Amino acid sequence: MIRKFLHDRRGNYALMTAITMIPLMGGVALAVDYTELIRERQETLNALDAAGIATAQQIVAGATDAEAKAYAQTFFEANLRHVLPANTTLTVTLPNNNAGGGTLVLEAALKYQPYFLPAAVALLGGTPGQTNISFSAKSEIRLKNTLEVSLVLDNSGSMNDISVSNKVRFDLLKSAAKQLVDQLAGQAQLMKQVSKPVQFSLVPFAASVNVGPTYQGAAWLDPFGISPIQHENFNWATMTKALNANRWAEQVGGVWYARGSQWGTQQDQALTRFSVFDQMTRVTACSLKDLSGNCLPNATFTYGKVASWGGCVEARPYPYNINDAPATSATPATMFVPMFAPDEPGNQWTLSNGYVKTFGMINSWWDDKDATTSTGQAAQLARQKNMTKYFAPAPLNKAPLPAPIDGGPNYSCTTKAITPLTDVSNATGSTTVKNAIDAMVAVGATNVPEGMAWGWRTLSSTAPFTGGRPETEKGNDKVVIVLTDGANTYYTPSYFRANDYPLNRSSYSAYGYTGVGYSGTSTTRLYMNADANFDRTTYTETNYTKAMSEHLATLCDNAKVANIIVMTIALDLDSRNTAEAAQMAALKTCSSDSRFAKDPADPTGKTPKKLFWNSTGATLSDDFKAIGNELSNLRIVG
Fold it and tell me: In percent, how much of the chain has pLDDT > 70?
């Protein structure tokens, strides 16, 4: 009978339908639940995105932490049209609680209750016994990007000239620069949830750059005397033990050391330029004087320091002058070295013992301790390098002419010190930067590449200046703004109507003397460049300008490769002047492309605008507003 039943085909449609309805209904149930789950998940995600953008705008407008979180919750729930808010849990992570800052994170946990249990729970990833399915969605909103801006501003003497608008260029520059700080500071002050949203540094430059005398003793300032340029123009071998057993110099392993008790606390330490600054003395008072006011030999003398380091540094040898390589003793050429303008041949004063001043040198500021009048190049160079002269105290009332430009070891150190990155989202920081702009003075030559190199370094997260955010941090832009009113300049002695007996071939500046070869070579530091398109054997101001402009071009390329945004401004340059036209072209090439604006000269609208402004005194303020708008565009909520 059973066999007969199994082979009976009568009524099989109803039977098969009944059997197949079970999986069919399960499939339909699963499809319904799956579709509804996807819909609720997408609706939740949409609500998160909407709440994130809206909350970000509230934060930028100055909402407190509690207000921002409450606003996010309300906005999120209002956009859940088909999802029960009771089935969701919203977590809000504010930007100031995120590593690096700047990102608002909204994350929602949703409990979906299936229509059909328990099949849906099992098939949709749940576990037996569950009555709902949990899933999460997350939305991240980048608030306005953080900005680090370095103002690299020309402080050369020509900035005191009258602009075409009949106003002093320097006054116009200071006003426009402060206007930019105010514009960005106003935005920054609204960003309560981001740490240091906008920071400014200030790098005044002329013939050199002043990092600030407070850094004396810093590890990156070559405390071990190992840099190849540390002892340029110094001949420590002149300080022999036979000459003075209490203060002499000894070279050990390529490093010069201070020997003898007269060195005081520096005894047995490595000799550097700071050793000279710290040990040079002069008579400040004496107990007995003659009728002319001169100290008598048997008087009791009081001594004081001659000069402190002014804060300016040498340009590092190529290629470290055009990059942000960290200073490390493992590579001595990367170390920074304080500037020390050596005493050039000739005595500064005339004494009764026969010492006479040799007139015509640019910076003869100390007694050579050599009564000879020989003007031969070898003799003059020996007098310039002789180190013993610096350790004989100067007589009463005799000292180097005052810095910055008249003379002394700080010759050509004319600018105010760098202002490191400073948060302008508060009134104190904003005022600090603007006061530093007001304090700038315009004296000296023009060394744009050295100024720009230090602008880059102030944005760096590594020494010398460490205020910059990590270079890998997303949502942060590093910007260098370079302004100059002229071509790069490096002066020959003839510019000052001075002699050049030792063949220095230039006045002393950030690259030292152009007549001095680097580290025993015949090539001066200024002429060290892998792609030199100038005559390395010609020592003219025109050739110096070409060399510096090549350094600038390579520096600009390196900075842009390192994701530095470069903005350049030519102030009152005349395209009819060959040198100034070349500088304008160099500045335009140096600049980065805008991320937003297109070149108006391109009818296709595809070419990005170069971030270069050819400004006059009349347009400078408006051009700085355009720069502020460009920087603001970098910080749009998105």
Answer: 83
- The CATH number of whichever domain residue 432 belongs to comes to 3.40.50.410
* CB within 8 Å of 58: residues ≥ 6 apart: 67, 68, 71
Same domain, 162 and 134: no
pTM above 0.85, yes or no: no
68 lies in the same domain as 173:
no
Domain boundary among 142, 163, 192: 142
- Output the pLDDT for position 354: 44
Assess if residue 365 is contained within a domain: no
- pLDDT for res 366: 86
Q: Is residue 241 part of a domain?
A: no
In a domain, 300, yes or no: no
**320-346 as b/e, with b when 16 or more CB fall inside 10 Å?**
bbbbbbebeeeebbbbbbbbbbbbbbb
Nearest in space to 380 (alpha carbons), one of 360, 352, 407, 399? 360
Per-residue pLDDT at 353 exceeds 50: no
Task: Identify the bridge partners of residue 305 per DSSP, sorted by sequence position.
Answer: 281
Q: Are residues 111 and 182 in the same domain?
A: no
Same domain, 435 and 584: yes
At 549 the three-state DSSP class reads helix
d(CA 167, CA 571): 13
- pLDDT computed for residue 637 by the predictor: 47
Q: How many helices and strands (H and E) does the chain possess? A: 12, 17
Residue 149's contacts (CB-CB under 8 Å, 6 or more residues apart) are: 184, 198, 199, 200, 201, 479, 480, 481, 631
Task: Using the predicted structure, report yes or no on whether residue 571 has a pLDDT greater than 80.
Answer: yes
Percent of the chain beyond pLDDT 90? 58
Query: Which tops the pLDDT comparison, 207 or 62?
Result: 207
Beta bridge partner(s), residue 154: 205
Residues 578 and 434 in one domain: yes
Contacts of 399 (CB under 8 A, 6+ apart): 282, 306, 307
CA dist., res. 588 & res. 323, Å (int) = 20
Tokens 């401004």 identify what position?
Answer: 569
Per-residue pLDDT of 287-312, as tens digits, reads 999 998 889 999 999 999 888 999 99
Q: How far apart are CA 274 and CA 390, in angstroms?
A: 12
Is 83 domain-assigned? yes
Please classify residue 163 by burial: count the beta carbons closer than 10 Å to its beta carbon, then call 0-12 exposed, 13-18 middle and 19+ buried. buried
pLDDT 10s digits, 77-129: 898 877 788 888 899 988 766 544 567 889 988 886 665 555 545 554 555 55
Number of other residues whose CB lies within 10 A of the CB of residue 234: 24
What is the distance between the alpha carbons of residues 490 and 468, in angstroms, rounded to a whole number?
Answer: 31
Q: Count of domains in the chain?
A: 2
Is 193 found in the same domain as 122?
Answer: no
| Between residues 475 and 405, the one the model is more confident about | 475
Residues 119, 166 within the same domain = no
User: What are φ and ψ of residue 176, in 5° steps?
Assistant: -70, -40
Q: How far apart are CA 587 and CA 484, in angstroms?
A: 9
pLDDT at 551 (0 to 100):
97
Residues 483 and 624 in one domain: yes
Range of the domain at 131: 19-142
